[in-house]
Amino acid sequence: MANLAEKLSPLHELAMPRSGSDKIILSERLCDSLVQVQAWPDSVGEVEKLINGTRGKRSVMPTGPGRWLIDDPAEGLEDKLRKKIGAELGAVTGLTHARVVVSISGEKATWVLASGIALDFDLSAFPTGTTQVGHHHEIGLTIHRTGENSFDLYVFTSLVRSFWQWIEKASAEPGFSVV
Amino acid sequence: MSAFRLNLRDGVGTNLSDKSISFSFDGKSYRGIEGDTLASALLANGLSIIGRSFKYHRPRGVFTAGSEEPNALVTLHSGGRTEPNIRATEVELFEGLVARSQNRRPSVNFDLMAVNQLAGKAFSAGFYYKTFMGPALRGHKATRFWWVCEQFIRRAAGLGRGTTIPDPDHYARMNAFCDILVVGSGAAGLAAARRVAASGVRVIVCEESARAGGALASSPDFIDGEPAREWSADQIAELSAMDNVSILTRTTVQGYFDDNTFFAIERVTDHLAHKDRTVPRQRAWNIRAKSAVIATGALERPMVFAGNDRPGIMLADSARRYAVEFGTAPGRAVAVFTNNDTGWLAARDLAKAGVIVTAIVDVRTDIEASIRVLGEECRATIHSGSAIRSVKGMRGVNGIVIATYNELTGELGADSKTIACDCVAVSGGWSPAFHLTSQQGGKPVWDTELQAFLPGDPLQKWHGAGAMAGEFGLAQAFRSGEEAALKALADTGVAMPKQAAKIGSGPDIDGDEIDYAPAPVFEINSGGKSFVDLQHDVTAEDVRLAHREGFVSVEHLKRYTTLGMATDQGKTSNVTGLAIMAAASNKPIADTGTTRFRPPYTPVAMGAIAGEKYGHLAAERLTPMHDIHVESGAGMYANGPWMRPETYNLPGETVEQAYIRETKAVRAGVGIVDVSTLGKIDVQGPDAAEFLNRVYTNGFAKLPVGKARYGLMLREDGFLFDDGTTWRFDEHRYLMTTTTAGAGRVMEHLEYYRDFVWPDLKVALASVSDEWAGVAVAGPKSRELLKVCVKKCDVSDKGLPFMGLVDGVIADIPVKIARLSFSGELAFEVYCGAHWGSALWHALMSAGRKLDVVPYGLEALSTLRIEKGHVAGPELNGRTTPHDLGLSGMVSSKKNFVGSVLLQRETFSKQDRLQLVAVKSLDGQRIRGGSHLVAGSKDEPGISQGHTTSTCFSPELGCYISLALLEGGYKRHGEKLFATNPVRDAHVAIEVLSHHMVDPEGGRMRG
Question: Closest approach of chain A CAs to the CA of B768, in angstroms?
Fold first, then answer.
């Protein structure tokens, strides 16, 4: 996949770096590879092994029965997995352009998220390294906890600007920076 | 400060600091002390009339010291922040607070509308129902008479007025999860919170007031050797320091819903003079708790007697709190009128704070000696077995007239005695505040001893504690709080060591031991005007009148008299009203029953409910090319959740001129349009072909790889559901496109069939609407344009035939190109990853520059498809079948598909069904959407034979046209009718045409 055009974030200048409070740190990124894998009911274990066998630096996020969202820091994961899994075991869908990752961290991160998302962000209910599927009003979200106070939110591309406007507004009370 | 401010010292003014602050009421400046409520500050300044009553405009003063206040409603702030009907008893005073009285003309002290009192009988129970049925005036029906009266009645009655100026404040929400929610932080709540917090579970404590502690804040008792308020402050500090405990003050739990979900409002900045604009004014909490301890205390209730609404008459415990917590005397000389021991406690504490208590009037004769001592301590004259016959004074209290009272018969003696006083502190007993548990369905139970309703059996996981559960007194509160805590812990499944699961002995209490049960006296009926519901001006006689008129159910009583229906929801009036009703019915109160409380517990600002959604109702979906459209000057408008370009207007161009220009440019040359909004669903799996074959009306089993096909979907009932093209990428992988509006419902439809109807099929479905940016390139020069910029594929007619699909590259962007046409012209749809959408658009515009390519918007897109006769949302309206829209050829007779059985219903074959046609304007007038097709003139149009669906000006035909659904339309081409639209005053002569108005043979798009 050489010489591809540069991708443009739908957030444009909205997510330009800004210094402010470190109680909330916001950032955005586009994925190099974001892939959904859906295993057929009789091949869940086999597909899981295939996914975990090539884990590396990628985040593998379970989002449903026999379903995973995989964020890989290298391009081309969709084709690789499709060859590996094949139609007889499951389906591989590329979502690299379908989501924008909004990252939030800082001591008030769970407080800000809880102000708009009806999920229990307590570590006992949502441990680090796990994923939950939720929504902020009509915006569906896949939320991956990367640390005690840090989260990656996979937001639908067409709605990410509305979501960013909300999260900035919600972060204004404790104060925030954009990096 | 006025003579009403007491000498502040230890135990007097416990809520106050030493900081003086200024505020205004009705335009006049006053001073208060930090810690005051607006009510306490007004009382301290000697103001007794705070508002006017709802119907009769009677002068009213402060009646309580809490959120149950029925009288002292004020309007706060000004401009966009104007907020009416706020209880002065809950408003925390801050520097510069602006408040004004309401429902008065011209002033609260001189209200011309008080003339309503002269028409008292006319405004009795159900007066507006009777007005509806009032006498017919000459030339008027009865209802017309009501219309005339209504405007005057509405102007005369009411509370405060709001504003239409937008609210400048913002509001927020919070979702919280906990193991145990404790509602209320008084003695019972604190005991429960301490116990559950010690077990390590997650605890949230909600307290309505500014400070946690509830009634302990003004309690005269000592706990573990400390004054109760200091002991509670220590406990709260300890709880606050625990990681597993959150204490929310100024937070009223307003509602209790299913799944142990509680709705609470936190007043975040209402009490601040200088508000940080980043901080919300109020925060709405949704709290999901595994279990809850409800320790909301009890509300004191009054007794009803003649003249009981005079300013200066208030609840006894509230009078006590004004003295103890706010260092404010409720009057210069206070008479206490009670039917229970707590009235005596109030008298004692008032006196201890420095208030003169002139008399204690108790309806009871059998009063414990230990209680009588309290009266002696405050040097009041004691009148047991007595009651108030009347109140002296018109705009306040000058004195009371008392008489001997027979507790058993409820009769007053012939004697009378006048007692001088300017304040009457009344206690008629206590009503447990079980509003929350009543909301979730537990039917209250009458307790004859306590003369109060108690919460019924829990239907969810909650446990009552303290006065709310009928456990009055400090020791009982602590014990019941711990008991409730243990039950709540059991709900959460926390394993408790045996020792820890025992009820402790509780702290040492040094305080009053009294009997909280009142004498069953609710009303002293001496014939004067006696108010039950102070806020809605409902009198005891209104209740009896309602009963006489047949409203014997409490539910009917409430609605007929409006008892308990105002902003206070009858917190101080419900039980008394029921008791009077029961007496009138000659039934016990237990048999009379009570109404169910509904959320919210107190009025809630609409802004707090709207939360952060204030100002806009839904998130906007933007295509990857959104900014380009905006920068190009396109008028953007909402099309469902999507923002889409309407037209790209040139300077001075109207929308109509713009879309005509854009349409012509496409028909003559080439144009590009953003079609990224189309729904897109990834369909994969070994059974994907079979799956598609079952959901579409036409065959998909044999769609070749590298080809696309137009398909129709039906609902189970045979009506059209959605349409779109599906592209086959490889053996097991398809991309289905749907209408923009139908994407969500089609996905649900497909998932339902995949999961529940055909679970044996191996098919995966994924929404990829946001994965792809889409641009349609349309017009006779579209292939020419693509040839300029596309690499690595052949877009010639041979390389990319009609409905063909190829992969290519444009400006280093991998693209998929399908030869499809919605416009009827030679056209292609070019898809790429959404993050490359802008780059693709620029590349196509750049490639087409020499061909004079134009971007076109939704109006031109629509015009092109209307001219071509392609159907869209207005025709797929849920009431049409493929046969109605000329699409019978798309319905396979060789297979079953969703809707195939019911599509064969006889009614769908009738020739007089509404069928798709086109109509054109014969007189140059614009045809309006939704016009009815009629045969008659404007004055006598006759019955509707159909209606127009999608309208535009057709540059191709040179006139206004519309698609339409016309009865038996297929056989009526050439017929002349009218498109009538009386709402828009339009009656247009039209001719019926075939809906294939442009290139009916399809040569252009296949060329």
Answer: 7
